[in-house]
Amino acid sequence: MDGSSLDRINFNFETVIQEICDLGWAALDEGAVIDAAWAYYFFSVQFQENLDVARDLFPGDEKLQHLASEECDTDNLSPWPGVAGTGEAMNHCEFMRRVLTLSPLPEAKRLAFEASGARYLHAVRHTNPLTRALSIASYEDGGLERVFTAMLTTLESDNPVLRGFRHFLSMHVKFDSDPTQGHGAMIRHLRPDDRILPLWTAFRDILVEFAPALTAGRAKTSVGDDTNASHAERKRA
Length: 237
Ligand SMILES: [Fe+2]
Ligand SMILES: [Fe+2]
Hints:
Layout: H1 3-9, H2 12-21, H3 30-57, H4 62-71, H5 92-100, H6 107-125, H7 129-151, H8 160-177, H9 183-187, H10 197-210, H11 227-236
């Protein structure tokens, strides 16, 4: 094992990524997948905002600009029924927002989700700008590809929210997975460390808050476990 991969394993945020992957995605019913998609929507807003922060911090970074061109004001998820016309460009978080409108929640539930989402975004927005920028590298260079692959084990149905969310996820796995031309290659020069751990734990927590059934069918690691303990177990394995 070389030094760089050893460094990555030593970060506790990697353990949280694995915890998210090990949640009970495959056991969710249709309503719970929609709830999880709502949680993911708020994550996608902070992704967009963190990418903007990174661009402000590193205005001359051409790879970062290239990445932004594939995440912001882009038609690479278009067309999609009820969401995006042919060639219509938008930010990816806007795509998710529109997907969620295809199967509206009862108003009380929507308001509760929006209040929780606002609290989550408030916390992210009060995170140090460099930390927010570094989070993008962890999202794009394998982190979200792993999470999205786990999310794609959710049930398939004709519900338009599930179909749109699945389109978003599968396209992102494609965007992120190419080792030399994918999104990870555009960002891995920003090297994340455990300063970003609170952003990953906040993502895990909002997913579980919105879709509590995720904790019922989870595998291996446990939400709320001490991450160091989990990490020590992984190192021994
Ligand atoms: Fe995206
Ligand atoms: Fe990406």
